[in-house]
Backbone:
C-alpha cells in the first residue's frame, strides 16, 4: 500500500483579519501530495492549501473567507509552482528489474544453445 504524504511547497503570512478572533496573524500553506511505496515514489499534481490563524489556532475554511482573504489566496496561488508529476523507482524495484532481465537473458541463451530441447 502506498502512503500519502503532503509536502509543503509554499508558505506565506497574510495580513488579513481572522474571521474568528480578528487578529492579523494568518498563515497560508500550500501542500503537494506524494505517494510513497516500496517500489516507487510518485509526485502527484494535486495541490492542497490551509489557512490557519496563529493567534487562536483555528483553521479558516473557504466558507468563512472574506473578500480580502480570497484575493490574497488567489495572488499566492498564482505564485505557487508545484513540482511536475513524476514517478521515481526505488532501489528494490530497480534490483527486481535487473534480476528479471538477467533471468530472461540466461533463459534466451539456454534456449539458443538447445538446452530446453532435451527436456521436452
Residues:
Amino acid at each position: 500500500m502506498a502512503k500519502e504524504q503532503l509536502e509543503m511547497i509554499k508558505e506565506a503570512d497574510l495580513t488579513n483579519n481572522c474571521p474568528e478572533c480578528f487578529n492579523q496573524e494568518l498563515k497560508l500553506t500550500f501542500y503537494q501530495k506524494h505517494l510513497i511505496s516500496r517500489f516507487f515514489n510518485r509526485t502527484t499534481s494535486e495541490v492542497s492549501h490551509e489557512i490557519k490563524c496563529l493567534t487562536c489556532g483555528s483553521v479558516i475554511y473557504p466558507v468563512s473567507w472574506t473578500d480580502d482573504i480570497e484575493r490574497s489566496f488567489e495572488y499566492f496561488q498564482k505564485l505557487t509552482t508545484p513540482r511536475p508529476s513524476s514517478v521515481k523507482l526505488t532501489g528494490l524495484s530497480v534490483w527486481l528489474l535487473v534480476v528479471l532481465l538477467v533471468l530472461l537473458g540466461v533463459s534466451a541463451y539456454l534456449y539458443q544453445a538447445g538446452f530446453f530441447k532435451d527436456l521436452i
Summary: The chain has a mean pLDDT of 90. The chain has two helices and five strands. The CA atoms of residues 19 and 64 lie 7 Å apart.
